[in-house]
Amino acid sequence: MPHRAPPTPPSQTLATQREIQDEQDRRDAKADDRQGQEDPGEQKAVQAGAREQPQKLPAQHLPKPGREADLRLAPRFEAPDYRGSGKLDGFAALITGGDSGIGRAVAVLFAREGADVAVAYHSSEEDAQDTRRHVEKEGRRCLLLQGDVKDDAWCREAVRRTVDTFGRLDVLVNNAAFQEHADSLEDIDDRRLMETLDTNVGGYFRMARAALPHLKPGASIINTGSVVGLQGSEKLLDYSATKGAIHAFTKSLARNLLPRGIRVNAVAPGPVWTPLNPADKPAEDVATFGQSTDFHRAAQPEELSPAFVFLAAPVCAGYITGIVLPVTGSVGAI
Q1: Cα–Cα dist 330/140, whole Å
Q2: Dist. CA 86–CA 77, nearest whole Å
Q3: So what's the pLDDT on residue 42?
Q4: Which one is catalytic: 82, 121, 204, 239?
Q5: pTM for the full model?
Q6: How far apart, in whole angstroms, are the C-alpha atoms of residue 92 and residue 219?
């Protein structure tokens, strides 16, 4: 049998990601490339949803992995105007990166629609416990699973525990991600490249592979892509590449699993107020995050989560597979 390296403990992964972040922070501190940048100004944000969403964001930079509990402006994930109607009654879902951000918002709405939810997370224990409280507040069960999607054995164990606890698995949401900006391709060494690829692409492959034996006709896999996978990003070279790969993986796996009655789709968010970006961008860039969109603001997680419900629910999307659904706040995302 081929030699297998031992799995990387979560503490080592977190140390690696923080070292990558620290290296980039030092580059940012030395750089003077922000002079002369165009000021997005104070254009009025577009408000077209159920309630008015924040336009101004705090100038805040977080250490990785970025805890939602540390954000000065709490992301909105509860979607108080969304009324559940049993679209996922009796379902069981597993969401990676479900402790915060988009993952937390999806967990809450899945529960509101009748699903039990397993929340996989890496290291943000406080955020994960808060997500569990909100899922249980919706009257559904919540299982917390701490581990690293880079570890194949952990991925299989997470799926096993989900099935053992809930008796089934109907929806897998691949959402966990690592992101760190870079001004230059030369700044992305192999360690950083492999951390991004192995988390964002490898993690999706491993979780889908582990889940497949338990998915029955009518089940689905939903991958979190990104607008940068559609349009590219000059400062997110490796991250954008992984999101483009996720979109291709979604379409390919959809074709592969269609004869088995399993649908595979993706949501491609634009800028969303989650811990991911304050744990990447310098504080001054965070303050203007999302203002270059046609909406002139970042989305809140509760503006993304209904798209995941739509794609998960057979009553809504039973004839939809292989799509990448853009929720970007801009016209002409694709």
Answers
A1: 35
A2: 19
A3: 63
A4: 239
A5: 0.85
A6: 10
